[in-house]
Design brief:
The chain is an alpha+beta fold. It has one domain. 18% of the residues lie in helices and 28% in strands. It contains 1 helix and 4 strands. The protein is globular and about 30 Å long. The mean pLDDT is 83.
Length: 60
């Protein structure tokens, strides 16, 4: 699956001024995370289980 076919969601912690934007896209085998300002780089790919752990720690 290419990164253009994915639905990218902007982090709720990202500001509305267009800076510090982190986006995530979910697919069955991984969660992809990218900096919306630097689309030349490959997104970070992590397992869905690691994503759940990360989100759980971020909301505590």
């Amino acid at each position: 699956m290419s990164t253009t076919e994915l639905v990218w969601l902007k982090s709720s912690y990202s500001g509305t001024g267009g800076d510090n934007c982190v986006e995530a896209a979910m697919c069955p085998e991984a969660v992809l995370v990218r900096d919306s300002k630097d689309l030349r780089r490959q997104p970070l790919s992590i397992s869905p289980a690691a994503w759940v752990d990360f989100i759980g720690h971020a909301t505590r």
